[in-house]
Design goal:
Layout lengths: L1 H9 L5 H7 L2 H21 L8 H19 L3 H6 L1 H18 L1 E3 L2 E7 L2 E3 L1 H17 L4 H4 L2 H20 L3 H18 L3 H20 L3 H11 L10 H12 L11 H4 L11 H34 L3 H25 L17 H19 L11
Helix pairs in contact: 3-4, 3-15, 4-17, 6-7, 6-9, 7-9, 7-10, 7-16, 7-17, 9-10, 10-16, 13-15, 15-16, 16-17
Length: 381
């Protein structure tokens, strides 16, 4: 039976029912559990009502769940062939948002596509993962060690990062850069090349700091000393820490959080949703949420380990690192470990663009799992 399933994933003609049998339904249930946590948190953020956040969250998740399962049915080799086309489409959207994008909170990051408001930088991260995986998946160890071979993928990563930073969106730009770096590392790029780049980045950091926008420098200064402006730039992180600490071990109870419901906690439905969870459900609720999110990252690593082809391994690693970085940055941000930035908590925070791109990534991850035994052509010399 196991042998028959392996043959199935190598066969392009495998039927939909056979592929549905191979879908990791336990992972689907895990995603539903994480989204349910988000529904509960957003219900509370809405003042104990499904509107305006929780109901939209449920509808978006339902739509994205169908999309995810549909993508999982697509042969991973077909997706591989479309990798660079996806990169070009993502780049085109970034250029479009630079020209005609909507401005919100001092940044030009969104475009209107009918009823959907899309943040192309989120989509570009997924497209970059696919493109880099396609570039490296048939490259031999010797070829990966050739610096000339690395020029095209480096350019492919830096162009979208530059456009994202120009919006400006420093947080997403840095995450995109780190996701790209993770694929370079997984593909076998030598460690000393990373050391040179990190050293160069450290050297130009003071110069880069002078070119940051005023609000970005204010975030760094507030991170270093939030008490210097408790009613201004430091207000958000101070209120977040108060809410985190007041939750204690077991929390104040569902709908009983004072910082959130008395509107002391800013952006409680988006960036600071984890703080609201911690206040109402305490350390136990916060750690339980983190455990669910860790299982999602663990599944991505499992897919990378079980996949027989390099393309799928690199895609799984890239998607896993992307999800991990979003969780890490959001949690570190609301706990005051790093400067505050506009990074949502995946599947929990309110937001359609983040939900769409996150579930798109999971659809690709599940396609890798379903077709983990697919046969690609031999490595390039």
């Amino acid at each position: 039976m196991v042998f028959e399933r392996r043959l199935l994933t190598r066969d392009r003609g495998a039927g939909v029912l056979e592929k549905l049998w191979l879908i990791p339904w336990s992972f689907v249930l895990l995603l539903c559990a994480v989204a349910a946590v988000g529904y509960v948190a957003l219900y509370s953020a809405g003042g104990g009502a499904a509107e305006p956040y929780a109901s939209r969250h449920a509808l978006r998740f339902g739509f994205c769940l169908v999309m995810m399962l549909s993508i999982a049915m697509i042969d991973i080799r077909v997706i591989a062939k479309l990798s660079w086309a996806g990169w070009l489409a993502g780049l085109g959207l970034l250029v479009l948002v630079a020209v005609h994008g909507q401005v919100g909170k001092g940044a030009q990051r969104w475009i209107e596509l009918g009823p959907i408001q899309l943040q192309p930088s989120e989509l570009m991260k997924i497209m970059l993962i696919l493109a880099l995986a396609h570039w490296f998946h048939r490259a031999s160890w010797e070829r990966v060690g050739n610096p000339l071979f690395l020029i095209p993928p480096v350019v492919a990563a830096l162009i979208p990062v530059g456009l994202i930073l120009k919006q400006p969106n420093l947080g997403t730009g840095l995450i995109t850069l780190m996701v790209g770096g993770a694929i370079f590392w997984a593909a076998g790029v030598r460690w000393w090349k990373f050391a040179i780049l990190i050293g160069a980045a450290a050297g130009i950091a003071p110069i880069a700091y002078e070119h940051l926008h005023d609000y970005q420098r204010a975030r760094i200064q507030t991170f270093l000393d939030p008490e210097s402006d408790p009613l201004g730039a430091g207000y958000n992180i101070i209120q977040s820490k108060i809410a985190l600490g007041s939750g204690g071990i077991w929390g104040k109870g569902f709908l009983q959080g004072t910082q959130g419901h008395l509107n002391f906690l800013p952006e409680k439905q988006t960036d600071f949703i984890f703080t609201m969870l911690a206040e109402e459900f305490g350390l136990v609720g916060a750690m339980s949420t983190l455990a669910l999110l860790a299982l999602v990252v663990g599944f991505a690593l499992l897919v990378a380990l079980r996949c027989r082809h390099q393309y799928g391994r690199l895609v799984a690693i890239g998607l896993g690192v992307n999800f991990f970085l979003y969780v890490f940055v959001n949690i570190a941000m609301v706990t005051g470990s790093i400067p505050v930035g506009g990074v949502p908590l995946p599947l929990i925070s309110h937001g359609g663009s983040a939900m769409l791109t996150t579930m798109l990534g999971f659809g690709l991850l599940m396609s890798v799992w379903v077709h983990r035994n697919a046969e690609f052509s031999a490595a390039r010399d």
